[in-house]
Amino acid sequence: MFGNSFRIFAIRLFSTLASLVVMVFFSHQLSQEDNGQYLGFIVNLTITSTLAGLGIGLLLFTYTGDELRYLVRSIRPRYYYAYLALLLLIAGVFAGLTCGSPAALARSGYIPFLFFIAYTAGVLLESVLMVAKQFKLLLLSGFLYALLYVGVSLMAYDKGFSMDRLLLWLLPVVYGKLLLLLWAAFSFLRRPPVGDPASFKSKKTFSLWLHLGFYDLSNMLIQWLDKFIVSLLLTAGTAAVYINGTVNIPFVPLALSAVSNATLMQLSYTTGRREKAALMRQAGRLLSCIAYPVFFFLLFFRAEFITVAFSDKYAGAIPIFLCSVLILPVRAYSNTTILQNYHRGRLINIGVVLDYIVAIAIMYPLYRWLGLAGIALSFVLSTYVQVIFYLYFSARLLGQPMTQLVPLKNWIGKLLGFGLLGFGLYHFLHGLLTPFYLLVAGCSVMGLVSVVLLRYEMKRE
């Protein structure tokens, strides 16, 4: 489980790092209006690609490689054609959002349209190849894609920034990666599956897929809906301030996704309830080594992080950022892993609805109290309620107390340790170093301690 977690994390790390590097560079070099346009593109791409994904990528990790081959063979051709039609439709919507006007859509709409198709198909194929454990190929393709993405973005800025130029120059990059992944995926799927096809329940798969598709889309919307609305209703400059203030710290969701997917892969071979609970505790110990140091680092160094990463132009995002990072401690629990393993999609989606209800109920009072930061805080608090809901029903499925699914003592020790370390570092170094070197020093110490703890957790197992 640890090995697969790190492999999946590393595969997704390259593209995330590339996006982060470009985001930071553009925040410093572009005007707020141009940067807001680029950030709006990222928001629109995230939402529409998740919609086009239909929860398929999440579903795939529920099965072994042979079960995946049965699944692909059991789907009738008309459903593949229907999905292709849906993909083309959503690509058209994305092109319209990116272009912003009918005239621009008619002139250059084909560029974001083609980009979206290759990007979304590549994301789905990566999930297939992770189940196939083609990790070396995925690491290579991810590394090359990240280098080319950063290089092309810098060239597009040097020639005079425009979204059309950036996406046009990225087309060969995304289609080159897509062809490589297609070749590998077809090679994997062509091999005949081993095992009893009668044990594969297609109706059960369809039911789980419907629930996971709804969950994947809803979970994404709860994280990105506020950014999408702000980017549509407010000026691009104001949207840039809000989006930077609510920036997702990429490594934690990346780690959560990697550990969750690796745990699901391991759970598919595990039958005992106590063993499954033990796997969840292992995942919690691993995730807390990442989520807790990142949380306390950003909590104490928040002002320096915003001004150094995005420049002084975005100092107004600091209160928003403070509220948004409060979500990080709860990321140490892999929310829906047990429910997905037991195919309890209905419970997963009840949790999604609960998340929305709580967020909507407290959003306006918190907005009146804290302004835009209150909107960010409402989504954080609703997530805490959702996680408790998932933990309660996961424990019931396993017939275990909730405390058996989480390493509570381990978490408390890390919270106290990292909290004191972050507090001490900031107050000792503040005033001695410039903001940039203050960030470097704090990040280095917290990161080193995090790595040491990760190695300890791996040896412990």
From TrEMBL:
Record bears the keyword Cytoplasm: no
Transmembrane segments: 6-26, 38-60, 80-98, 110-131, 137-157, 166-186, 206-222, 251-271, 283-302, 314-334, 346-367, 373-399, 411-429, 435-456
Primary subcellular site in the record, as a coarse category: membrane
Localization per record: Cell membrane
Gene Ontology CC annotations of this record: plasma membrane
Highest taxon above the source species: Bacteria
Topology term for the membrane: Multi-pass membrane protein
InterPro entries: Poly_Biosynth_Transport
Record key words, sorted: Cell membrane, Membrane, Transmembrane, Transmembrane helix
Official protein name in the record: O-antigen/teichoic acid export membrane protein
The organism of origin for this protein: Taibaiella chishuiensis
